Request: fold
Amino acid sequence: MNSIITLFFLYVSAVSATDDPSQRIGGGTLVPITSYPFATALLNNPGSGVFTHRCGGSILTRNAILSAASCFYTGNNAHDAVLWRARVGSAYSNSGGTMYIISRITPHTSFSPTTRANDIAVLRTRFNIQFVAGLVEAAGLVGRTYTFSNDQAVEAIGWGAVSSTDPVSSIQLRRTVIWVVDQQICSNRYSELGFTVASNMVCLGWLDVGVRGQCQGDNGSPILDNGAVVGVFSWAEGCALGRYPGINTRLSPYLQWVVSTATAA
Reply:
């Protein structure tokens, strides 16, 4: 069995994933924030003075958020934390809930913007996030022994684009079900593009079908097994393409680092 760890409540539970055949493909299904009260929209101000959706994240504690390190880089240059905000408590990336100033961005010490290796980060908010039961809560995290199985169904959520032909991010949170793709098949496919799929990555999508999957703007958003965070979306070639599944960072190998970074002074 795989344990779930919640940093705020520190509880343990067993997890397993189920598929919902009624899920529509493509852009996924619109969901309320009460279904995923830990979901966080991360907004960036590129210098225009306006904060717009860029990535997703998961609340870890009252002042820590989990995301992908690649969200906070342009090329090899890291972004200043002051350029970022976190919106919690709302299914809408552009309104509602509460916005928090990001005071610190800590990418994994071995993150590589070039290879996307170790693509995980912990953000700290300047002020404590106000928890509201059922609306703003900490996410559950799987334990260090968690493993994926080929063809396993997992949930993906986010505010990313709904299709390859519409690159604009969804205003409202969406959810879909995708599947674990065999690591060797995924590695062979991405080798066509000169990209190496590392062991701490997991490939997710609808192999050779596409349509349903992770897209631009979903980066940093969690993948879930029965409500617990099991990984973080890193990147994908295109948007929900059948040939190239989404590349995600497995959480379990980084759990100790995530916990220590999120709870550090």
The domain at 37-138+254-263 is CATH 2.40.10.10 (Thrombin, subunit H). The chain has two domains: 17-33+145-251, 37-138+254-263.
